[in-house]
Amino acid sequence: MNFELEEEQRMALDGWSRLVQRDIAPLAKDFKDQPFSRDAALEVMQIMAPYGVGSGWVPEEGGGVGLDFLTSGLLFEELAKVSPDVAGLAWVAEGAALKIFQNGSDAIKERYLPKLTTGEMIGCSAISEPGMGSSVREMRTLAVRDGKYFRISGEKMWTSNATVADVVTVVARTGENEFSMFLVDREEHGFKATDIGKLGLNGWPMCQVLFDDVVVPEENLLGGVGAGMREAMKGFARSRCFVSCLALGIAQAALQDAITYAKDRVQFGKPIAGHQLVQAMLAEMATDISASQLLVYRALSMLDSGKRCDVEASIAKSFTTEAAQRVTSKAIQVMGAFGLTKEFPAERHFRNARMLTIPDGTTQINQLIIGRHLTGIDAFS
Ligand SMILES: Cc1cc2nc3c(=O)[nH]c(=O)nc-3n(C[C@H](O)[C@H](O)[C@H](O)COP(=O)(O)OP(=O)(O)OC[C@H]3O[C@@H](n4cnc5c(N)ncnc54)[C@H](O)[C@@H]3O)c2cc1C
């Protein structure tokens, strides 16, 4: 067991950290509480692409950087300290590009990957619907074969990135118990995305997406007929790790802000950082963060070694996202009433952290995965 970063990881992280502060922080600051414009989203994706954020998981043969998941996770964690919204945008785009690399025909890959891996195009993935979230097999969106084409109709919900995206990988029902994944191009085939107002992560669009008899050629099937559910499920262990990296970044920013405030704020004749119970809150926050890091890095390392890590990813995701809520709530407590105001970032960290116990398996769904492993009993059915 080695708890040290490799020299290469440390160097990548140092260079990345400087870039985030210099180039991304100024851009992201205008989109803390309003969704990215498409131009801003493209600009930030293009800044990040050479560093492998937004393109890192696609191997070099597909035009990506071919980063390992642990290094990628460290970069996302660092980015999320400054802008979890940009981190969300890049993580979802990167996931869509990887799905296309793994499942697309040569023609599809040649057409889309060069632009998706350089940030000239943005992708997203649509699975959830208004009537279905956790129970993905209950989806209603239909894709009906029509000769060499499929006609897709239905409504997807909470699709991250969709208002700024060029392409969406959409999972739809193609039979009684058969699900397939399609690549839909906004310009060529048409899909309509509308931003949904929400509690936190307001720079990162979350959208309703309508498919109104959208006609796509069969070449746009990703992974063949019937492969949609398997491919969607395969991505969950990875995406649970990366939601956790976002939560880790938010929690660390909240701890840093709380420490800075506590050293400055004087009550009872000394900085509140010198009061033992304030130190206890800071210590609990740091402990939650350290425990989260160990769980997330373990799951990422397992992904890198090609081992199945469904349970480890669920443990990491459920713990880290719940921990980020505790940490950001304590940051507000350390800062007293000022922590509740818009003058300080603590309330935004809290709202942002609150968003993350829901996507890619709610805490409860991840607990059911862990419980099934422990008991051998499937509580889903
Ligand atoms: C920030 C964010 C980004 C997202 N991005 C995307 C995206 O890009 N693409 C996409 O397709 N979707 C996306 N989603 C949607 C997300 O995947 C769903 O919200 C999630 O799967 C939960 O579904 P739901 O919200 O419909 O809740 P529901 O499934 O209705 O669950 C409601 C409550 O019931 C509980 N529950 C449900 N079933 C069980 C059970 N069997 N046992 C115990 N408790 C249960 C849940 O834990 C939850 O507390 C995103 C969501 C968020 C918040």
From TrEMBL:
Keyword Flavoprotein attached: yes
Domain of life according to the entry: Bacteria
Name of the protein: Alkylation response protein AidB-like acyl-CoA dehydrogenase
Transmembrane segments: none
Domain Acyl-CoA dehydrogenase/oxidase C-terminal as annotated: residue spans: 226-374
Record-level Gene Ontology MF annotations: acyl-CoA dehydrogenase activity; flavin adenine dinucleotide binding
PANTHER family with a match to the protein in the record: ACYL-COA DEHYDROGENASE, ISOVALERYL-COA DEHYDROGENASE, MITOCHONDRIAL-RELATED
Phylogenetic placement of the source organism: Bacteria, Pseudomonadati, Pseudomonadota, Betaproteobacteria, Burkholderiales
Keywords: FAD, Flavoprotein, Oxidoreductase
Similarity-based family: Belongs to the acyl-CoA dehydrogenase family.
Organism: Paracandidimonas soli
Pfam families the UniProt entry points to: Acyl-CoA_dh_1, Acyl-CoA_dh_M, Acyl-CoA_dh_N
Keyword Flavoprotein in record: yes
Cofactor: FAD
Residue ranges annotated for the Acyl-CoA oxidase/dehydrogenase middle domain, each copy included: 124-214
Domain Acyl-CoA dehydrogenase/oxidase N-terminal: 7-120
InterPro entries: Acyl-CoA_Oxase/DH_mid-dom, Acyl-CoA_Oxase/DH_mid-dom_sf, AcylCo_DH-like_C, AcylCo_DH/oxidase_C, AcylCoA_DH/ox_N, AcylCoA_DH/ox_N_sf, AcylCoA_DH/oxidase_NM_dom_sf
